[in-house]
Amino acid sequence: MLKGKNALITGSTSGIGLGVAKALAAQGCGVMMNGFGDPEAIELLRAGLASDQGVTVAYNRADMTRPAEIAALVADTVARLGSLDILVNCAGIQHTAPVEAFPIEKWDAVLAINLSSSFHTIHDALPHMKAKGWGRIINIASVHGLVASVNKAAYVSAKHGLMGLTKVVALETAGLGITCNAICPGWTRTELIEPQIAARAQALGVDLEEGGRNLLSEKQPSKQFVSVEQLGQLAVFLCSETAAQITGVPIPIDGGWTAQ
What we know:
Blueprint: E1 6-9, H1 15-26, E2 30-34, H2 39-53, E3 57-60, H3 67-81, E4 86-89, H4 104-132, E5 135-140, H5 153-173, E6 178-185, H6 194-204, H7 208-219, H8 228-238, E7 250-253
Parallel strand pairs: 1-2, 1-4, 2-3, 4-5, 5-6, 6-7
Helix pairs in contact: 1-8, 3-4, 4-5, 6-7
């Protein structure tokens, strides 16, 4: 379905980003991976994805807190893949603490990676999409782009900001063959929430699996984690022609969290 298209996916060496990369590659899409991790492990992921799906897969370890490196990442994507048709902003970090105890440097880091980096990637990618008259921008937001939770001031602020950015970009690109939407996952079992599961398990004196179930029961009525595969398939749908008139919207995939 996406043969001939090429995607840049930030934060795609693990978790949701990797799930989206696999889903797009399975549809024939070339992929530029980005993220941190062990270089040998990342190369195995890159080479395996390219071999399994028969598409071009490249990697660039740009630091998403640095605008100059983001600009170079976009240019590298176009140079190595031939185009930049799909942008998925997935890079993210988390830190939890009450507002009065929230470390200033953590606030700055969460906002830089979870919000500002998406502005910079969109800023640099849009000229390429406008030149072709086609593009898909998908921001991986969160249910925390729609509702709040305690001890997550920076994350909630960044994700709410990302929702605002999504809407503005959608309005500015309406009618140009470009869409911009936000996927808003609920609890998804990735590296990002493992510390929260571990903390819950320790506080309750239970194992990690029970800690996970307890975490789910607090917010997610389905009492099941969202899977990265489900998120990947939603991204594929948003890249399809069927979704060409869906733009500027948050799409919760959260087991009923935001229905409450």
